[in-house]
Amino acid sequence: MNSKAQNHPFPQNVNYAFGVKPTTITSDLVKTEYNRFKSSLVTKCGSSLRVIYSDDKTQTRGEAIGFGMILAGYMGDKETFDGLFDFYKSKRTSEAKNMMAWNVTCDGYVDKGSATDVDIDVAYALIVGFNQWGGTYLHESKQILKLLSTNMITSCSGVKILYPGYNSGVWGGCNETDIQYYTPAFFRIFAKVSGDEIWNQLADDSYVVLNASAHSETGLVPDWQTANGIGLPPSYRTAYFRYDACRVPWRMALDYLWNGNEKAGIWCTKVSNWAYKIGPANIKDGYNLDGTPNNGGDHNSAFVGGLAVSSMCNTQKMADDFGTEMKKIDDTYWFNLSTRCLYLVTMSGNFWQPTQYYK
Questions:
Q1: By the 8 A CB rule, do 123 and 143 touch?
Q2: How far apart are CA 179 and CA 317, in angstroms?
Q3: Tens digits of per-residue pLDDT, 277-311?
Q4: Is 2 part of any domain?
């Protein structure tokens, strides 16, 4: 058994090496919202825990397990962390090459194939868990990283690309990838944990993929694209800024906040400049890449929060104003509340960079 005593008890309230933190977000708000996330979305499944899918509470999306484990790791909540990880392990399938099935129920499966971001986020969460409590979490992370590096990374004209999923074989790749699955700051840590240089290559090439599709003025990216940046047909995939792409500003900003990556800083500055002109209170949940509205009528943390984190690569006033708006939003839908908590942990200075990579 691992000790429940945390090495990094919440709150840490660190100042990131680069960027700014909004003065308008407190750790008390983070704790309140995390507790609301747990009480409204986390439920028992036998001896494990899962996060409910709001549209059908019998279901769980794999990405919710990744979100929840990252949150529990940073909050120092070992009981929730272990319960969610037990659920992850119980839903690994042969169809997904021993990665987690992306759409499941407590007792079964809706789809036994994988979605790559699920296993990336869980592998990262386990590194946070190791930094918190020690134990076998790092070994568990390395096993997942080996599955990912062996099966889910390809090369397209010399650029490293993620396959979006595995369902009795990989699918997508050069002709279909999701920039939301790319978190360069995580990949740089994966390289240190695994000793595999492919993760550093993937981290650097994330910006090739990002900039291939990013609009020259707004910086907005589509949910899905080809490796060379062409948006996939709307009848097949969402080719505009919607519920996948809304997470990209947070995922890219981490590489600037932790590492000062110039390409992350440039893109986050561009997209946050666009968002700030729209106004934090006016952000909706769907935009064409040129910034015109598309199918967006909801104002929620999934969109406001991701852009709020990108504003941390910009000015103090911008970050403060986005923080003020984030305090006003009351999300209940599983995706919006889960991402809200991830963004608030980041904005409050509690998404610290793991520094323990070896055992």
A1: no
A2: 28
A3: 999 999 999 999 999 999 889 999 999 999 999 99
A4: no
* Side chain identity at residue 239, one-letter code: A
Report the predicted TM-score, pTM, of the whole model to 2 decimal places. Answer: 0.98
Helices (H), ranges, the chain: 27-41, 62-75, 78-90, 116-133, 137-151, 184-194, 198-213, 248-259, 262-278, 301-311, 316-328, 334-347
Chain length of the chain: 359
Q: Is residue 124 part of a domain?
A: yes
Q: Do strands 92-93 and 48-51 pair parallel, antiparallel, or not at all (unpaired)?
A: unpaired
Q: What's the structural domain count of the chain?
A: 1
Q: Which of 142, 54, 46 is CA-nearest to residue 90?
A: 46
Is 9 contained in some domain?
Answer: no
**CATH number of the structural domain spanning residue 182:** 1.50.10.10
Residue 270 sits in which domain range?
A: 27-347
**22 lies in some domain:** no
Burial of 267: CB neighbours in 10 Å, binned 0-12, 13-18, 19+: buried
